[in-house]
Specification:
single chain; globular; two-stranded antiparallel ribbon; alpha/beta; 414 residues
């Protein structure tokens, strides 16, 4: 303010020039104030690391809360779309079972979890850490939410790529209450530093924080509340041995049987308020590749078809017509799967054919062919991997309406 008065002697009514010149002249003062604030912050960090970590987490939450409380004009413009996405998310959450008794399938896993829940409740302790692995879409996230409901605790859901920096996982762990569940999806993608922070947190419920650098560096151990870590992965072999061994339970989720998928489809149809016959539910289940996520997705497409065609009840014929329209055959193969097998049979007499050649012939990326399309074809026995390349099996020939040649049959038998 002294700088403003020394450069501007105009009468008081002229406020606009004073405000402009005053703003320009006050920049050095602002920089000095900012520098002093940074210096005070650094001193506070070295003096009390615990308070700093808690304040950082609180500030992050406070910023998010303020942003949600006062939406900007741009946010209000896209608000209808945001509300639509929120409604879709709520509908998806309704499809998830809320209790272990409502969960269909995975009988052996349910028995193990039921024993673990009852033992933890009897001892009034948190659940032991749990690692779930298996193909995508089998219900790993659903199980973590069910466990939080059964234990009457909160569940924080995140993914490994979101925990890019160490302070991300520190903020989550410092805000955990006793018995809370932390679910990390794709846990095999954790960074090395984040994984190292989890080791003492999982075993001793403490965080080892390094403060300073060089000779002045020191380690402070911060106690945290006992919690349960649930990790989910599709590649359990990609986890390091120290992390994998710290889980008290390591459970694999298997593919679902058609009768289990039929029950899931009937339950989903009731939630979606649509009528479906048992035969139609079995038809959708047969084409779902043993995966509940695919079953629910196909059921929604059948519902769309029935609504447009004004069919009040989804019968087996309606389900077949809808799924054929979306290029899903009775074995669950889509157009790309059949194209892959057809190219092998028509162009290369069933194989063997190399991966790169097959990818070039179908117009797909080799990694996409190997990681997206081949696993299911291998699982149902329509494709074989040999040292010379990929080979279409006689079952694939018959499924596509071809007669397998005798030389290929003898080659596969040998």
């Amino acid at each position: 303010m002294a700088i403003v008065s020394s450069h501007n002697q105009s009468p008081p009514p002229e406020k606009t020039p004073r405000s402009r010149k005053g703003g320009e002249s006050s920049l050095p003062d602002q920089r000095v104030s900012k520098s002093s604030t940074v210096a005070q912050t650094d001193l506070a960090l070295s003096a009390s690391p615990e308070a700093n970590i808690k304040a950082t987490a609180g500030d992050t939450v406070g910023v998010a809360a303020n942003a949600a409380a006062s939406p900007t004009p741009a946010a209000s413009i896209v608000r209808p779309e945001a509300e639509g996405e929120e409604r879709r998310s709520q509908n998806d959450e309704k499809l998830r079972p809320q209790k272990l008794s409502e969960y269909i399938g995975q009988r052996e896993l349910k028995e193990v979890l039921q024993i673990a829940i009852q033992a933890a409740q009897f001892r009034q302790e948190p659940l032991d850490h749990l690692l779930l692995y298996g193909p995508p879409g089998l219900g790993k996230t659903t199980i973590s939410l069910i466990l939080s409901t059964e234990m009457q605790v909160s569940c924080k859901v995140t993914s490994a790529p979101a925990l890019e920096r160490p302070r991300d996982i520190v903020g989550l762990l410092m805000n955990m209450q006793r018995g809370d569940i932390l679910f990390i999806d794709e846990i095999h993608r954790l960074s090395r530093m984040t994984e190292e922070l989890l080791y003492p947190a999982m075993e001793d419920f403490r965080l080892d924080i390094t403060i300073g650098k060089g000779q002045s560096a020191r380690i402070r151990s911060l106690p945290i509340q006992p919690f349960t870590l649930i990790g989910a992965t599709t590649r359990v072999g990609a986890l390091t041995s120290p992390l994998r061994d710290r889980f008290g339970f390591v459970q694999r989720l298997r593919f679902y049987e058609p009768d289990e998928l039929s029950q899931i489809i009937v339950r989903t149809a009731q939630i979606l308020k649509m009528e479906i016959t048992p035969e139609a539910a079995e038809e959708v289940a047969r084409r779902s590749r043993g995966t509940p996520r695919i079953a629910n997705r196909l059921l929604k497409r059948v519902r769309d078809y029935a609504s447009v065609k004004q069919q009040a009840i989804v019968t087996q014929d309606v389900a077949i017509e809808a799924l054929e329209l979306f290029n899903v055959d009775p074995c669950g193969l889509d157009w790309t799967d059949r194209r892959l097998l057809s190219v092998m049979i028509e162009h290369y007499n069933g194989g063997p054919v190399g991966l790169e050649t097959l990818a070039a012939a179908t117009g797909e990326d080799s990694q996409t062919v190997e990681e997206v399309y081949e696993p299911y074809l291998l699982q149902i026995g329509y494709l074989n991997r040999t040292p010379r390349g990929r080979v279409a099996t006689p079952a694939a020939w018959k499924h596509l309406g071809y007669d397998p040649p005798e030389h290929q049959i003898s080659l596969l038998r040998s």
